[in-house]
Amino acid sequence: MSIGIIGGSGLYEIDGLTINNEITLSTPYSAPSSTYKIGTLGGIELVFLPRHGVPHAIPPHKVNYRANIWGFKSLGVDKIIAVNAVGGISKDLAPGTIVLQDQIIDMTSGRLHTFYDAEKVVHIDFTNPYCPEMRGLCIAAAAAISLPVRTAATYICVNGPRLETASEIRFFSQNGADIVGMTAMPETSLARELEICVLGISVVTNYAAGISENKLTATEVVDKMRNSTGLIKKLLKAFIPTVTETRSCPCKEALKDAGL
Ligand code: HPA
Q1: Could you list the residue range(s) of the whole structural domain that residue 175 is in?
Q2: How many angstroms separate the CA atoms of 138 and 21, rounded?
Q3: Total-model pTM
Q4: Is 147 domain-assigned?
Q5: Most buried in the list 58, 105, 138, 220, measured by CB within 10 Å?
Q6: Would you say residue 250 lies in a domain?
Q7: Whose C-alpha lies nearest to ligand 1, atom 7?
Q8: Using an 8 Å Cβ cutoff, are 161 and 207 in contact?
Q9: What is the pLDDT of residues 234-247, one digit of tens each?
Q10: How much distance in Å is there from the Cα of 221 to the middle of ligand 1?
Q11: In a domain, 254, yes or no
């Protein structure tokens, strides 16, 4: 078993992770965002990849999601913890809130979003985009350390790199979105196509456009994420040791009956 962690804006390394190896991969889909750092946290093996590269140079619409996910698979990772920075659409999702999202609305376009665009026709089930088993364990871990987290939320994924208009956010809100970000897709569905479980942890870094009067800035997003890494690390430390080797979730057989 190996657990992968994808770090988002402001999370470029996991402090406390003892690095044993750093691997540069080339994949059939070209280069991933960075080298994969292999290490241990509390004795458990982890593989870390910063989604936007180091330094932060790859914008969300240019991340090579296929290479990143294929790279994890080739390193034996079967569970990914994806950390994202998001804007809070619901008023009760104030900056600093940690969210374990359970649903996605995909508004992206023009991104290379599948591994199955050549010989095989495959339609994976994506009714529940996040691994129910990992979500359950993480919710229990947060409760065990009394860390307040929002345990369900719909993440609407936009292309970016611009932020949204106030009307777009109002529209998203009316259609059930709780948080907005630029990176969960196609990352999450690509992992499902390779039968990798995904847990999505978001940090609300700002109120989305029009929810607060303040002008939104990219620096605010990264600063808030940096300030929240202590809480993320605390959650990961409690959660990761509870992850079991065996998987009893549907993610592990996502390709069963998915091909034509
Ligand atoms: N919108 C889109 N993506 C984001 C935001 C936002 O307000 N904050 C962090 N990522």
Answers
A1: 2-245
A2: 27
A3: 0.95
A4: yes
A5: 138
A6: no
A7: 87
A8: no
A9: 999 899 999 988 88
A10: 8
A11: no
Q: Report the residue among 63, 101, 178, 182 best suited for mutation to probe ligand 1: largest number of ligand atoms under 8 A from its CB.
A: 182
Domain count, the chain: 1
| Model confidence pLDDT, tens digit, residues 53-76 | 988 799 999 999 999 999 999 999
Q: Residues lining ligand 1, CB < 6 A? A: 85-87, 158, 163-164, 180-182, 205-206, 208, 216, 221
Low pLDDT (below 50) residues in the chain:
none
Residue 129's identity, in one-letter code, is: P
Q: Does residue 251 lie within any of the structural domains?
A: no
Instruction: Give the C-alpha distances (Å, rounded to integers) separating 44 from 18, 34, 39.
Output: 10, 22, 8
The CATH number for 92's domain is 3.40.50.1580
Beta-carbon contacts of 162 under 8 Å, excluding residues fewer than 6 positions away, are none
Which amino acid residue places its CA nearest to atom 10 of ligand 1? 86
3-state secondary structure (DSSP) of residue 61: helix
pLDDT value at residue 12: 63
